[in-house]
Amino acid sequence: MASPPAPAGDEPRAAGTKYVLITGGVVSGLGKGVTASSVGVVLKACGLRVTCIKIDPYLNTDAGTMSPFEHGEVFVLDDGGEVDLDLGNYERFIDVTLTRDNNITTGKIYQSVIEKERKGDYLGKTVQVVPHVTDEIKQWIQSVSSVPVDGQTRPADVCVIELGGTVGDIESMPFIEALRQLSFSLGKENFCLIHVSLVPVLGVVGEQKTKPTQHSVRELRALGLTPDLLACRSAQPLIGSVKEKLSQFCHVPVENILNIHDVPNIWHVPLILRNQKAHEAIIKQLNLSGFARPPELRDWTEMAESYDNLKNSVKIALVGKYTNLTDSYLSVVKALLHASVACSLKPSIQWIAASDLEDATAINAPEAHTKAWETLKGSACILIPGGFGDRGISGMILAAKYARENKVPYLGICLGMQISVIEMSRHVLGLEDADSEEFNKDAPNRVVMYMPEVSKTHMGNTMRLGCRRTFFRKSDCLTSKLYGSPPHVDERHRHRYEVNPSFVPVLENAGLHFVGCDESGKRMEIVELQDHPFYVGVQFHPEFKSRPRRPSPPFSGLIMAATKHLGTNSNNSNGYVGASE
């Protein structure tokens, strides 16, 4: 099918979308997601339009029902898609708005194939992994890559595909085969493969070892895919002889062997790729020289270097349920980073397990209890993020109470907003049995209730999800000012419970003002505490839309309030670190 004519004023583009595939070998957790995002940044800086796809070989339909301890946070998209956290990296780095279809899982593929089989679409044929499953994968990739994600109307020039897991994993074999077929049908000038591998240094020998990468590439080639570039992860820069050895045994030109060594912050990774001319190799492989320009990364360079030069930091107490795995709150961490850097500070996140603040811990583990409270009181501000279940709730309520009574800047996100409502109800209104229906369905005073339209029998994709509009009830409220005083804001949601509207009047009389609501006027979205420097709760998740150069307003407000709190605090050691940690 011929490409549609270019709109007036558009520069001529390459015919059809071209593909860059990122695979990984040796071990998981090498940073394929950051590599894929960084490739996208560099190609976009060359004037090319970029989209991204993440392939997750697990059987789950999406990430919505997966434990944060097992797979990190669930990232939520505008369309309500609950997806892998790597799509958050793509959105933050490349500044695009992806859809649920940009995350392909084995569950989605098999579900689609089985639905077609039940409808008779295969005309009585025996449905097999090859060709039916592999054809479905190829069709999905080509269909999704044609959907613009940057606000324009034409398909992207380049689609960066990240294959999750490690080459050789049994669950990824159908995807490897489908990608092999896709690369063959598209031709070399439309398909570029970057293999991310590890070059470790053994402690005893002290030598950079290439054998793991050699074996990984050998396995990849045995499956029918040959890498065009190698992206070698290492602690220190690779020495020249190592690159030559890798080139000889992996059949990759020396100039196409990239080294992504450890850096002070991940914003340096696109600069590393640029400095090693990764864009030139990719553009040459994809025959895009006539459409690309030299990469323009001045703003990105300034951002990366300015962070390295920051001397002061601010202590932020993050009181959560999943603090043993920081990836559980990855978008929150990134939003704090964006807001802190905008205030010329580095974020020093103090991880506090909410259960450690509880009275029961004072008896069972007194040292952990004492340390948790010392950390909380030594921070410049407090943040309670989202979560599910009743574990640690009492500790969160105590943290919110401490912030309210001691005028410490506080931001509650989703569950954190509900915690502030429960805390006020118990300790200001005197409703000692006030609770959420999530934690106690028989509580006499259910100040947080189950949303009536949400399923109580199915967990997956049944919450209030995606981008929803919040209207400001008071135009002069603090949160509205942080957003620039618009009549409404559009933010992403992920929750099953909401504030019980019957308790709103009495809570407002006590000083907890509900300044934002949905279009019905009944579902409360934003709370602010009067006579407090910064005590804000939001039902939505503002972290999902935070960007390096456009920090989320509620996070910016928290950090700005924290700096003011430090300025009025006679003890500067409380929450302030003179030299970056």
Automatic annotation (TrEMBL):
HAMAP family: PyrG. Its EC number is 6.3.4.2. InterPro entries: Class_I_gatase-like (IPR029062), CTP_synthase (IPR004468), CTP_synthase_N (IPR017456), GATASE (IPR017926), GATase1_CTP_Synthase (IPR033828), P-loop_NTPase (IPR027417). It catalyses: UTP + L-glutamine + ATP + H2O = CTP + L-glutamate + ADP + phosphate + 2 H(+). It comes from the Eukaryota. It is an enzyme of class 6 (ligase). Catalyzes the ATP-dependent amination of UTP to CTP with either L-glutamine or ammonia as the source of nitrogen. One of its GO terms (molecular function) is ATP binding. Signal peptide: none annotated. The keyword Nucleotide-binding applies. Residues 18-288 form the CTP synthase N-terminal domain. Belongs to the CTP synthase family. Pathway: Pyrimidine metabolism; CTP biosynthesis via de novo pathway; CTP from UDP: step 2/2. It comes from Urochloa decumbens. SUPFAM superfamilies: Class I glutamine amidotransferase-like, P-loop containing nucleoside triphosphate hydrolases. This is CTP synthase. The lineage of its organism: Eukaryota, Viridiplantae, Streptophyta, Embryophyta, Tracheophyta. Keywords: ATP-binding, Glutamine amidotransferase, Ligase, Nucleotide-binding, Pyrimidine biosynthesis. One of its GO terms (biological process) is 'de novo' CTP biosynthetic process. It holds the Pfam family CTP_synth_N. Residues 325-559 form the Glutamine amidotransferase domain. Transmembrane segments: none annotated. The keyword ATP-binding applies.
